[in-house]
Specification:
This protein is α+β, with helices and mostly antiparallel strands and about 130 residues long. Helix content is about 15%, strand content about 35%.
């Protein structure tokens, strides 16, 4: 789990910068030409509302991932692709640290499966890098 500049699907096509930096779950890494493309799902404190779909993170998952105790969701029906490492950001209050921690394997499998299912539906939105 990293912190990155995240572009929300609702802002796609608008002339706006990313809403803010967010924690994000790395779900895929792909080497294309001379660039590393990383696919991410955003993590937010804001309860998802339609059309967004999210998976609530358990206290154990948040602790393992290095997140705070507040309620948080992984949004599974939108994501970003970034060129590594151009869009990653330092974690606030932790100079030189860009990685929160790891999502436990069982939690990752559930999140990944929900994202895979969402990707097969018309409402999934992936925004970002083209090599």
């Amino acid at each position: 789990m990293i912190r990155c500049e995240y572009f929300w699907a609702a802002d796609a096509g608008k002339r706006v910068n990313a809403s803010q930096d967010h924690p994000a779950l790395v779900i895929a890494v792909n080497q294309q030409q001379d660039k590393t493309i990383v696919a991410l799902l955003p993590i937010t404190h804001t309860r998802p509302e339609p059309p967004d779909t999210g998976i609530a993170l358990s206290a154990a998952t948040k602790k393992a991932a290095g997140l705070d105790d507040a309620p948080q969701w992984v949004i599974v029906n939108q994501g970003n692709q970034i060129i590594w490492p151009e869009s990653i950001r330092q974690i606030p209050g932790r100079p030189g640290v860009f990685h929160y921690g790891y999502v436990p394997e069982a939690a990752f499998a559930i999140i990944f499966e929900h994202a895979r299912q969402a990707a097969q539906q018309a409402g999934f939105r992936m925004i970002g890098a083209k090599p």
